[in-house]
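Example (one chain per record):
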Amino acid sequence: MIKDGNRPAVLRPAVLRADRGDATREKLLNTAIDVFGRYGFDGATTRKLADAAGVNLQAIPYYFGGKEGLYVAAAEHLASIIGGHVGDLRTMIVSRLAELDAEGAAMTSMEARHFLTQMVQRMIALFVSKESESWARFIIREQMEPTEAFKRIYGSIMGPMIEMARRLIGAILEDDPASEHIRLRTLSFVGSVLVFRMAHAAVYAQLEWESAGPKEIETLHRHAAELVAVLGAERDRRS
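Predicted structure:
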């Protein structure tokens, strides 16, 4: 029973069914990210998806209309999960950029470095975590053969994050964020961060790590700060 003020209230059957339905849908979404990532869209049969989630086979058409609907919904769910890890920082940076835009002012190089360092530290720690393994498999497949799922992931999380990094790198290098130069610098910079997930095995082999505990995360945080610190360093030396 749950309390409503001082009066006990019994959960109605409809509420219980809704809770079970939400849990089933959540199970399917989380499982789908892993199964689609491992086997691809064609290899991930509805039976394989349902069995892995521990749900009835009919749950897939019931909640998602079929395998295609589940695939797209899994992409949206993945974008939401990643967004949840960086949402507070992303909101802070976007709000600050909007504030400066409204004032017709530019972000200083120092402030941009501060924000970019925080963002990179957050992302690298996330990329070396066990949690992000299934995400990487799903996203890599979509990078190789983009579908509607890629549009959902790129449109809601990847694109906005890259554009935000582009604004910050443009401020650091004092160049137009929309220029081809800054777009290329941003992509190269993002690649130097993504390597910690996309080349996970090579990273661990090179660093001779078995896992990423607090000590390793602290090392990565320092590395992230160095990645940001060297941006524009050559230009600064010349000037």
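Caption: The chain has eleven helices and two strands.
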